[in-house]
Design a protein that fits this description.
Layout (H helix, E strand, L loop, with lengths): L2 H21 L3 H11 L5 H26 L4 H22 L8 H17 L13 H21 L4 H11 L5 H25 L5 H25 L1 H24 L2
Helix pairs in contact: 1-2, 1-3, 1-9, 2-3, 3-8, 3-9, 4-6, 4-8, 5-10, 6-7, 6-8, 7-8
């Protein structure tokens, strides 16, 4: 493999880690780049390989959030335990069937979320204390199963979907949603990695250098999000959701 390909993949991994640490959606950067630069590899091999830098960047971002943001460990323990097998199941299904039929539906759902987030200026700016107790646990279980399966089966935009779910269903603000979502994202990534390793789908010579740069981007992105706060994250979130919409629109109408 030409050295310039590794360099471009590492640059993409850095940008992906930076974006993902703030609002999720890093897969929207490194996945298309990898598909373009590695046309001779199977898609499942590329997706499996990219899970290593993804979990690396998420780990470093999560470490920064844990030091600076209060985490809901009671809720997270339930979500982590459920998200892992859900992602494993989603990745297992991906090795047998195509996920293209899901993208038109996601295009509609994301469009509605984008409009709502833009109109509601106070969306995610403060915590909603009315969501507590058993209701919060039920929502957490639903989020873990659905987003966990999504990450294993489709992938790109998982972090953004988690942030949305933490805000709309669990009542978190943007900074706490981003922080707690990282822990669940770690579990979904690990679930997928276990499946891809067992299937021999990871190319470590590509995954390891990308992981280093993704981790650096994740560390820097998390520090910026913590320093800037909710308003900055909301703006960044809108940009990432628009990028996600463009990606899915391309897949649905042109690819």
């Amino acid at each position: 493999m030409e050295s310039y390909i590794i360099i471009l993949l590492c640059l993409a991994a850095f940008v992906a880690g930076f974006i993902d640490a703030i609002v999720g959606g890093g897969g929207l950067i490194q996945t298309p780049v990898a598909l373009i630069l590695l046309p001779n590899l199977a898609v499942s091999t590329i997706i499996g390989t990219l899970k290593i830098p993804a979990i690396s960047g998420t780990s470093f971002a999560a470490h920064q959030y844990i030091k600076n943001v209060k985490m809901n460990w009671k809720l997270l323990s339930i979500m982590i335990l459920l998200a892992f097998p859900s992602a494993f199941l989603g990745s297992t299904l991906l090795t047998y069937v195509s996920n293209d039929f899901m993208k038109p539906l996601l295009l509609i759902v994301l469009s509605l979320f984008l409009i709502y987030t833009y109109i509601q200026k106070d969306f995610g700016q403060q915590r909603d204390t009315s969501v507590t107790g058993s209701k919060q646990i039920i929502y957490a279980i639903f989020i873990s199963f659905s987003v966990g399966f999504y990450d294993g089966f489709i992938g790109p935009g998982t972090g953004s979907f988690l942030v949305l779910a933490f805000i709309t269903l669990l009542g978190f603000d943007f900074i706490n949603a981003s922080a707690n979502a990282k822990m669940v994202n770690l579990a979904t990534n690990f679930g997928s990695i276990c499946l891809f390793i067992s299937k021999g789908k990871i190319i470590w010579a590509i995954a390891i250098p990308m992981a280093v740069f993704n981790a650096l981007g994740g560390w820097m992105g998390a520090k910026l999000a913590i320093n800037k706060g909710n308003k900055f994250i909301r703006t960044f979130f809108l940009v990432v959701v628009i990028a996600t919409l463009i990606r899915f629109a391309y897949d649905v109408f042109y690819k």
